[in-house]
Specification:
two-stranded antiparallel ribbon; mainly alpha; 6 strands; 41% helix; 2 domains; binds zinc ion
């Protein structure tokens, strides 16, 4: 996971956003009955395939075509548009039943959308662990700031403050939020770990080769090394790379 710049919503989403939010908040205020079926029916985001495609495209562009959680390419699958705070059954742990009332009223909040690969989406499911109490039903953005999510949001948090990478490609939590994020998305699952381990091995070999090339200046050598790191590590750009980029290279 790496820090991402939140993009602007596409015009098609802007058109329905205000009306959708107003309708959902009206449901909160009038205490209308809601249920999964009526909400799904109400939710234009999932009804409008063209808009979903446009949002997915914008979200994919900011992460250079990678999943916002595991950084694996999503071009093949197109990625899955998901809610950071789930629209129902938000749970603190896999065995929890979850809260049926959280967080359906955020269905039109641009800040609540993210792009996940199918596997990360499956791992996350409706998990949204928090410390303390959940926000009141219908909470606006300012009230949500009082909630303490344990899951990192790459648009709001800098993951490198919470997660680092061991030399074998295994992710190591630096904070509780880092630990929860690794667990929820299962970021140390076998295939990801193996890919990171292989990538690190390849990077070390390339950097080692560069150290012995006849590049005249130290600056040129650093540029060459940075290029290699970028090219090889496109899908894992967010990784801290101890012992590779920060090694004894000069
Ligand atoms: Zn993923």
């Amino acid at each position: 996971m790496r820090r991402l710049q939140r993009p602007y919503p596409p015009g098609s989403f802007m058109k329905v956003m205000d009306r959708g939010r107003a309708e959902l908040h009206h449901m909160v205020e009038t205490r209308s009955k809601w249920g999964p079926a009526s909400l799904r029916e109400h939710n234009l985001i999932f009804r409008n395939r063209r808009m979903v495609g446009e949002i997915r495209s914008v979200m994919s562009e900011v992460s250079e075509g990678t999943c916002h959680a595991c950084e694996q390419p999503v071009q093949a699958s197109g990625g899955e548009l998901e809610f950071f705070r789930p629209w129902q059954m938000a749970g603190n742990a896999r065995k929890d039943r979850g809260s049926p009332d959280h967080y359906w009223w955020l269905s039109y909040d641009w800040e609540n959308l993210q792009l996940l690969c199918p596997m990360c989406n499956r791992c996350k499911a409706s998990l949204f662990p928090i410390a303390g109490e959940r926000a009141p039903i219908g909470a606006h953005y300012e009230q949500l700031l009082d909630e303490q999510p344990l899951l990192l949001n790459p648009f709001d948090d800098d993951p490198k403050d919470h997660i680092t990478t061991g030399e074998d490609g295994f992710l190591i939590a630096l904070t509780e939020r880092g630990q929860v994020t690794i667990e929820v998305y299962q970021l140390n699952r076998a295939d990801l770990h193996e890919q990171r381990r292989a990538l690190f091995k390849r990077l070390r070999a390339l950097v080692s080769q560069l150290k012995f090339t006849r590049v005249s200046s130290a600056e040129a050598k650093q540029v060459a090394i940075a290029s290699v790191l970028n090219l090889v590590g496109m899908e894992f750009r967010g990784l801290n790379r101890p012992g590779i980029a920060g090694g004894p290279i000069s």
